Amino acid sequence: VEDQLAAATLNLGLAPGVNLTIQLSDVSSDPTVREQLHPFVITGPAENVAYLQGKLQQHSKAEDNTKSPLTTPRHKHTRVDPVPSVGGFLSPQQRITIDESSRVAAGIPANAASVMFAYPVPSLAAHLDEIVCQDKQIEPWVFFCLVGGFCYFDEENRAVQVNAFVLRNPPLQMHLVGPYMANAEATDWLQSAGRISDVTLPNLRDAGF
């Protein structure tokens, strides 16, 4: 293939049906809205949300403590910060068109009509080493927040399943091969839509992506 670059391969672990529930705003039928990123919030289970909120508060306080007293306003009363919500962004929604056997192999539920890619939660992904190595949090739902995954929705746009990329003991694997020369028209559209960003995960960079 003339437009193929030097091939690289990478296997990504995938865990279907992780223990998280999410909520997002209604997906509009307007095509200009469907092409945008969609914010989501993690709503359960309660113990998982509490852990994530605790990490956000911990790092928020640490950042406050590093600020210069010359630039930090003084208050007579102790400020009580609200409990932060935990969430991130989903890619534009896409219809699922693969056949039943491929769904099973990919861990996609039978009642899923569409899928969105979930980006890592920005405020948590930067602390991957701390959460995994120090806190010993290696459950698939944690990796969903740190590494990302896929969210599946039924015909009514109700979330029916969350699948996570995992770094340990994956039940399934995604086999990635590339890079390939991109179609110029597709690249221009992705660039104008703000969908292109630098690859930052060390495993992907080391594999040539």
Structure commentary:
- With 209 residues, this protein is α+β, with helices and mostly antiparallel strands.
- The chain has one domain.
- It has 8 helices and 9 strands.
- The two termini are 19 Å apart.
What is the topology?
Blueprint: E1 4-15, E2 21-24, H1 31-34, E3 38-44, H2 46-65, E4 87-90, E5 94-95, H3 100-106, E6 114-118, H4 122-125, H5 128-134, H6 140-147, E7 149-153, E8 159-166, E9 172-180, H7 184-192, H8 202-206
Antiparallel strand pairs: 1-8, 1-9, 2-3, 3-4, 5-6, 6-7, 7-8
Summarize the structure.
The protein has helices at 31-34, 46-65, 100-106, 122-125, 128-134, 140-147, 184-192, 202-206, and strands spanning 4-15, 21-24, 38-44, 87-90, 94-95, 114-118, 149-153, 159-166, 172-180. The chain has 209 residues and is α+β, with helices and mostly antiparallel strands. It has one domain.
Question: What would the keywords be for this entry?
Answer:
alpha+beta, six-stranded antiparallel sheet, single chain, three-stranded antiparallel sheet, 209 residues, 8 helices, globular
